[in-house]
Amino acid sequence: LRANNGEITRPPVPGRVMYGETLGDALFRDLEKDLEPMAFPLLPASQVLGHDAMDFVSPDDHGLVLEARDLLRAARAELAAAPARLECRLRDALGRDRWYRFTPRWVSADDGRPLLMSILLDVTAEHQVRAQVDRSVHELEHWFDLSPVGMLVYDETGLVLRSNATLEALVGHTPVSLHEAAADLCQLLAWDG
Predict the structure, then answer these.
(1) Does residue 83 surpass a pLDDT of 80?
(2) What's the rounded Cα separation, in Å, for the pair 160 and 180?
(3) Choice among 37-41, 111-115, 135-139, 156-160 with the minimum mean pLDDT
């Protein structure tokens, strides 16, 4: 554990799943939180408990959360599980957005009041990896298009999925299928279809 501006946080442990639990009322106000396993600076309980959880949701995700709340209200009468899980960004104490996957479920308090229990899973790393993969794919596509080497991608049936301008300049018209291609292009591509 380490102190950060008066807050106690746990440093991230590689390979460790970051999660927490919340309990809220029917108005979506936080009543109780157990977020200690989370590995980022959290706001003190006094700034969180009794507040609408929407106060901590990234503005970009407000619409999504409001839609999820409508689904939760509809499920409340039967104390049923929410129809779907939700992913949205929450702001930490430093104002940074972190991605969380919520799995909410209505439960009943001892006095019969409906309470919303949610398990939160920190999926920030997953979103960062997806973004990196998307950037890498875009870079690869860009390289493919600009390559000085003629390239063609085809599937197992011989359907041409992609080709670049260099190949087009070498062979003239790129066929839609290798079944329609000239014999010398099929030989070059080792296509015996």
Answers:
(1) no
(2) 10
(3) 37-41
Asked whether the beta carbons of 57 and 160 are under 8 A apart, the reply is no
The closest alpha carbon to 30, from 42, 13, 47, belongs to 47
**With bands split at pLDDT 50, 70 and 90, how would you rate the model's confidence at 166?**
very high
* Dist. CA 177–CA 159, nearest whole Å: 4
Highest mean pLDDT of the ranges 83-97, 104-118, 160-174 = 160-174
3-class DSSP string for 35-104: CCCCCCCCCCHHHHCCCEHHHHECHHHHHHHHHHHHHHHHHHCCCCECCCCEEEEEECCCCCEEEEEEEE
pLDDT at 190: 87
Residues 6+ away with beta carbon under 8 Å from 102: 85, 86, 87, 88, 118, 119, 120, 121
Give dist(CA 168, CA 133) in Å, integer: 28
Look up tokens 């991605």; give the residue: 99
How far apart are the two ends of the chain, measured CA to CA in Å?
Answer: 63
**Residue 161 vs residues 34, 157, 158, 193: alpha-carbon distances, Å:** 50, 11, 9, 16
- Rounded Cα distance between 149 and 182, Å, is 19
